[in-house]
Structure formats: C-alpha cells, structure tokens
Amino acid sequence: MKINLKHFFWLLLVLSVQIAVAQGGAISGTVTDNKGVPIPGVNIVLKGTNVSTQTDFDGNFKIQAKTGDILVASYVSFATIEVKASNSMTIKMVETQNELEAVLVVGYGTQSKKNLTDNIARVTAKDIQQVPVANVQNALVGKLAGVQITQTNGKVEGGMNIRVRGAASISASTQPLYVLDGIPLITDDESSNGAPTNPLLTLSPNEIESIDVLKDASSAAIYGARGANGVVIITTKKGKEGKGNFSLNFSQGISEATHTKKFLNAKQYVELLQEAGRNVDDLESVEDELEYLSQGTDWRNGEIDTNWQDIALRTGYTTDADFSVSGGDDKTKYFFAGAYNNTTGIVDSNDLERITARSNVSHKITDHFTAGMNIGFSRSVINRVQDDNSFSTPMQSLAQAPISQARLEDGTPNPNTEYVNYLLAKDNTSWKTIMRRVTGKIFGELKLVKDLKFNSDFAYDLLTQTEDYWQGKNAPFMATDGAVFATSVNTESYIFSNYFTYDLTFAENHTINAVAGMEFNKYNRRYQDVNSIYFPNDSFHTVDGGAEVNEGHGSETDYAFVSQFGRFNYSFKNKYLFKASIRRDGSSRFGKNERFAVFPAFSAGWVMSQEEFLKDNTVLSYLKLKASWGKVGNAEVGNFASRQLYRPSSYNLKSGLTFSQAGNDNLTWEKSSQTDVGIEAGFLNKINLEVDYYDKRTDGLLFAKPLALSSGATSINTNIGEIKSSGFEFTLNTKNVETEKFKWTTSFNLTTNNSKVKSLPNNNTDVITSYNINRVGENISSFYLVEYAGVDPANGDALFVKNTVNADGSLDKSTTNDYSEAKRIVAGNPFPTLMSGLTNTINYKNFDFNFTFQGEWGASIYNSAGIYMSTAADYFDNQTADQLNRWQNPGDITNVPQARFGGSNGTQESTRYLDKADFIRLRNVTLGYSLPKETVQKAGMSNLRIYFTAVNLLTFTNYEGTDPEARRDDTGIGEDFYSAPPARTMAIGVNINF
C-alpha cells in the first residue's frame, strides 16, 4: 500500500497534540499592549521548564500548561512579566522604551530608571542596528544628550573623538573609559603612520544589546580614577529563556564623499597663474614652470585637464553580513553571533575587512550558583594611506596642477608633477594594518542567603596590531632598492573583580541595594619594529627579503591598578531616593607619595508625583527632582610621567645612559568634581522631559613645568591648572500617535557647553601651540590668529587688523598691509557650544520609518592648508575656485587679494582661513517593510524584513571647506588640512528571523 507522507505526518502531529493535551492540558490567550493592541512574536514560557511558544500575528498563543502555572512573557522594548495561567487569558504588557521601567547598567550592577538619581544616557540595539558604518561610535551620533561624537575624517579606520559634557583635560586624554561586559577596554592608538586607528573598530554592532553612557560624576565615580571623561558601558547580547531564535542580516551599500571642494580647471589655472606672474613682472619664470608641469603637452589650449580630486576620491562600497543564535531555558542561556564587514573606502587605496565572533553562555548549576563565560574575537585588516600631512597621501594630490597628467601613455604614474605624484605610492607601496582582539570573561554568581550574593569575575582583553609598510624601488623618496618597515605590538589587560551585592526590602516601604568589592587590573604592552633595505626586486614584501636589516626598536611597559569600591542605594516608598558611592584607587603610574586617592559621590532624588498632592494628577503623570555631586579622576597621563628617567646613549660603540626626565614623587591624577541638578517630568503618559544643569571642574591638570637649565632637565611634570565645563541638557521623548496601525514617537535632545580655562601654571602664563591658545578666561584650545581685514580696494593689498595695545589698554583696530605689524587674538572655538539631535520613529502597518537629524553650532575650523590652496596663485598649487574672485582693478570690492606670484599677498596664517562650522545633518534614515506573518510563516520563518538605510544623506551648512566634520589626522586641534570628508552611504538589506 502506498503511504501519503503528508497525511502520515499530519496524523503524527495530531496524535502528539492529543497526547500532550491529555497529559497536561493547554492554556490559550492573547497578548496586548496597554492600549489593547495585539503584539505578535511575544515569547511565552512555562516557568521552570523549556515549554514555550510565541504569539501569532493577532497576538494569540496556546501553550501546554494548566491553570495556576506561572507563565513568563517577554518581548523587545516591553517589560518582562510573570502571570498565573488561566483559560482565555489576556496578558497586557507595558512598553519600556523611554519609560521608567527601563533597566540601566550602572557599573557592577543595574538600576531601574525610575529609581535613578544619576545622569545616564542609553541607546539600545535597535537604535544602532542596520546603520551602515564600520564603527559602533558613529552609530550613536545625535542620539545622546551631552555626548559629542566626531570621526576624524573619511578614512575607514579614522579615529573617533568623543567628548562627554565638554573637555575634562588639556594635556591628558579627553576620551571616555569604555567598559565591555565589565572589561575596561584597551583603547590605545598603535598606529605608526601618523594617522590614528580606532581600536573600537574591533566591535560589531550586531553583538551589542545596549550602550549606557555615565555622564555625571555620581554615576562615573564607581570607576574612580578613570571616570573624569565619562564612562561608556557596552553590554553584549545574551540568551533569553524561551524558544530559540536564529537571525540573519545582510546589506549592501554604496558610498561617496559628502562634499568636495571646487578647484580650478586647466584653463582657469593657467589664466590665474599668468596674471599672477604679470602682476610681479615674472611671467617668464611662471610659463617656464608651466612648460615643465605640462611635459610637452599643449597647456595653453588645455590639452590636459586632470581632475585630481576625482582620482583621490572614489565610489565606496559596503557589505555587511551577520547572524546570531540565541535561546535558553531556566538553567542554560546562550548567544552565539558572527559578523562580516567589507568596506571599500571613499579615499583611494583605503579599505577595511573585518570578521567578528561572540559566544555568551551562562548556566545555573544549582539554585544558588550560576556560572558563565563571554568570549569575543575579531580580526580587522585595513589597507591604509598615509596621514594628511604626507605628500604621498591621495588628498594632497589636490595641490597638483591640472595641466599635469596623472599617468603617462604607458599607464605608469607621471613622475614630473609639482609635488610627488601619490600614484607612485599607490603603485609601489602598501601599508597594511591588522588588528586582532580577544575579549573574554568567566564569571560566577553565588547566592549566599536570600538577599545577598557574591560575584567573582575574571576578564581579559588582548589587542594585537601588526603594521607592514612596503616601499618598492620606484616609491616616492626611495633612496635604496626598496624598504620594508614592520611593527608588532601586543597589549593585554586582565581584571579580577570580586564584589558582594545586597538587596533588601523591609516594612514594605524601605528598599536597600548595596555593592562592595575590590578589583585588580594589570596592563602590559610590548612593542617591536624592524626595518630592512636593498631588495632584489619588488616581489619581496617582507623584512627577510632585504639585504640589510638597518634598524630595529623594542620596548615594554606595564601598569597596575588596585581598587576598593562601594555603593549604597536607599529608597523610601519609591519617592525619596538616596545614593552614595566611594572608590579608592591606587596606580603604579603616579608618584610614590600620591599613589592612592579616594573618589566619593552622593546623589538624591524626590519623586514628587508619588506625593498625595500629585498622585492622582492625570496631566502630570511623573515628576522627579534630583541632584548629585561627585569626584572622579583622569589617569591617562602616561606610565612614567612621575619617574626620573634615563635613556640609552652610545658613543664610539660604547653604551651609556643620559638623563632624560626629572622625577616628581608628588605627581598624581587630574581630579574632576561635578555637580548636577535636574528634573524629570512626564505628561499624560505620552511626554517625557528631562532637564539637567552640570558644572564640571578639573584641577591638578598635568603640565610640563619649565626648569632651569642647570637642573639638567628642561621641564618636570606637575599638577597645576584648572578648567571648567558647564551647560544644560534637554531630552524630550514623545509618543505622538498610538493606534492599532500607526505609531509615531519622537526623541529630541539639546546640549549647551562652555569649557573655560580657570588657571594655568607659571602664574597663568598662556600656553600657545601653532594656531591654538589656552588662556585663563577663554575657551579650551581657542584659536589664536592674526585678524584678517579683507582687501584694500585701491591697490589689492591684503589687510590685517593691528590689534596692538594702545596706551589706555584698548586694542588698536586700525588696519595694515604689513603682516608683521599685526598681533594675534583669540579668534574662535574649535568645539561646539550647542549640539542637538532629533529622532523620529514611525510604524504604519508593516512599514517602519526612522530618521535622525544632528546639529552643531559654535565651533570653527581652521584650514591650515589655506595658505597653499587659497592664495590667488602665490605658487603653483592648484587653487580653490573662490580665488577667481580676486582683486583686479581699483575699486573692486572682494575678500581675495590681487594675484601676485611669490608675493605673499595675504598668504600668511590668519582668520582668512578660519570658518564657522555650524551644520545640520540628516545623520541616518531607515525605511523598512516586514512581510505579513502568514506569508513568512509558510516559508518557515518568523519574520522577514527588507530595508533601505542611509548615513549622512543631507547636510545643511554655510561652511566653505570640505566638510564641517573633517579634521586633519596627524596633529592639531580643530584643523582641516587636505582632509577627506565623511562618507555618504546608502544601503539596502534584509533581516530574516527563524
């Protein structure tokens, strides 16, 4: 007899269901939100078992259970709840997105937002997923009040600058402490080519559950000596009890520069240079050089018209693919993930390829003991170009003459350009950087008694980086037959943490949470490099191919921290809140007399809406006042800043020692104290408002104080100086529309910041560096430049404001065409004083739409390349198109002086090249569509979503440079020097869940 397999399997299924029902019964019901709208995809678990199910498209479910059993319902962005099972039951879930029920990670524990007295900003996985950027920090831009995030420039490995509530230092690091699952991450920049790399490229967004930024000192003080610049706590995803989930994501994107400058074409270039030569009676030498640059081509009639910018910048491509598997039962929970990113950068010859993997597992061994392990691995391969100040970097080719060929007829790079042709570097050099990272943590949690538990964590972070710089025999500036420079650095850090947590509620109204423990952190770095020369041919790209190893270096360094910490939270009736914390840190980095310091913090809150006079108010649904004070430190001052140092010195093949640094046994960390007051208010359960004022003061700044030459050293590291940062933060979250088919929410944040210098060493003597100054009463690292006054309409001379001091103490504001007669003034701020972000999320039926605008105001950028590219043909560099507006005849009104070849007419460093960098940017936008549940379930899937997403889609600005976020990557503060703009990326992708 022929058996119909389809009917046979249906028979088995029906029989199985009947047996299950006969044994345990079935409970059916519906899951809705607090508005009664059904929620599909909710996990329903019979507590204490692995029996689970999910709600269908209409929110209905059926599970093998009996009346009185406990069911656990969980869903993303909703609070997990436990309910007793009953027939035809309805489970109502409460959304936690931007709500008081949200649980924040606060360091060595968690805390609900409703009981929070600190200032912590949070983003979750859905805020950063599917943003087509290679680094996690870039996905946070515009979403956090008080946090400024800027990528150095458009290179794929570009360093990230993050400032939490303004700068907390001048000479030490201003970057926050990053903590991944309790592991303080290594964030050292180990680049050896002049431009920074971003160590956090090693993280993939698909493994991140949430990011909490501890902004005020009360929240950051639990990290003591390393919390002055804020703390970024990154929590990776973990398995949840219930049905296993398999998720896939794939996207493909295309990128281009957000904006480019307009340069002269060949005809304009020739005309301007000829005019500049005639104006100084030197046309002959100008045309001689034009003959050389054109190499026999007809430059007078524009035979060659090379757009070097089109060669330096290209179309980029991005491929992202990732997967995750998660699930668990009441004993074991697991999360496994992997991701692949391949980014072809918009800068020629700049690429990134990264793979990451993560495994997080926990197991409840007994009712009292749980153990687990988190392991992450990544490998990033970066093909790099040199720093912005290198002639062989692509962007500096913009200075080349458009009448010069990029390549000769045989395809080889033209070697006879004004500056070295970067294509020689492209064809004959390579710079490959490989970053490998392993993060791991094993942990155990022991419940000693009902309300007391003990946690023991051992964590390890290993970051290794190798760089190989190969130069062939035809590489620029090559004096030998090829060279290879190879570096290797291994940096590791391990952290051993042990702490007790006590939670107690008594007499119904009193709640206590206390944490106390200790921590030991050991860091080690080992660096080596070697250089070899004289290669037989260009087929050899490693050190051993050279005939002579002519140079090598090596070093090793380490430091240690030992810490004790404690935190106490108390709540009375959930309306009177108090928190105190303290941490004692000791570090090998500091002088033996100042090796330990204590960092206390206090905060309090009053939930006024719980009082009888507001409790039943239907308009004002929530109101909390809070205030905090704390002290934190900045330990990023180098490992040997306090030590008396000697360096090796040799003479006539004899070794010796030379004194190199004076010691200071009293040197210690910079200390920041911060006061924060704020209010949180909710209206109609639809509008949430947070307003905070902060005042952050840092004293004991690390400075190199000059010494008398007779001391044998030029300076000594000391703790002198004070700065202050203050401002307001506003965060507004609204639920604009909530219906069964249509939901629209908005999140808006606004931040003001002023960072001022309060005192400096050597009797408040100004600290001046190139274009910047630190002066008491002024913004940190203010621009310090001669003031440009435009052009004399009578003769085309560049004019400058004298700004010399008159006898009465006022400034002489008269102008001069003699640059040496003008004095520098404080002319601008490299940092914004106002920042904002606006995010809207809209869901309509199966469509989802999300977009974020970001804005910054008050900052300026100094184009330090302006003295080359915008000088009206002072030399043979190609010029920006605005130089065509030069003065030509008496009476002309313009801001561009007369073109004078070699005449230095207004080419000096001045505010002529300083510009406001205010902008508003459509930072990211995403449009998605989820196929109907009944359609995808037939294919064995629980969800299938296709989406379009974009980054930096639109920019609104009056800034005349390349881009208001582009900065030079080799040095300087607030400078642009032939810097690549950020990328505008558009991608399409698909999410699949099983």
TrEMBL record:
One of its GO terms (cellular component) is cell outer membrane. It is found in: Cell outer membrane. InterPro entries: Beta-barrel_TonB_sf, CarboxyPept-like_regulatory, Plug_dom, Plug_dom_sf, TonB-dep_OMP_SusC/RagA, TonB-dep_OMP_SusC/RagA_CS, TonB-dep_rcpt-like. Residues 1-22 form the signal peptide. It comes from the Bacteria. Coiled coil: none annotated. It holds the Pfam family Plug. Keywords: Cell outer membrane, Membrane, Signal, Transmembrane, Transmembrane beta strand, Transport. SUPFAM superfamilies: Carboxypeptidase regulatory domain-like, Porins. Residues 113-231 form the TonB-dependent receptor plug domain. It is a multi-pass membrane protein. Belongs to the TonB-dependent receptor family. NCBIfam families: OMP_RagA_SusC (TIGR04056), SusC_RagA_signa (TIGR04057). This is SusC/RagA family TonB-linked outer membrane protein. It comes from Flavobacterium resistens. The lineage of its organism: Bacteria, Pseudomonadati, Bacteroidota, Flavobacteriia, Flavobacteriales.
